[in-house]
Design a protein that fits this description.
Mean pLDDT: 87
Shape: elongated
Low-confidence stretches: none
Radius of gyration: 15 Å
Oligomer: single chain
Largest sheet: none
Order of helices and strands: HHH
Helix content: 55-70%
């Protein structure tokens, strides 16, 4: 049971970290995205709607 709880907490921490990264990348302008090797289209495709946002 303890391993399950720690596994769930670890998964939640990872999910929160990924969400924070997504929000930070979405705030970048075209020049900043180009600096990190991305385009807005690539970002939109990679971070499109998550499964709970799709209707």
């Amino acid at each position: 049971m303890r391993a399950l709880v720690f596994g769930l907490l670890s998964w939640l921490a990872d999910a929160q970290s990924r969400a924070a990264s997504r929000y930070e990348l979405q705030e970048l302008d075209a020049r900043q995205l180009r600096d990190v090797g991305l385009t807005r289209a690539e970002l939109d495709r990679a971070f499109g709607p998550t499964f709970w946002m799709i209707r």
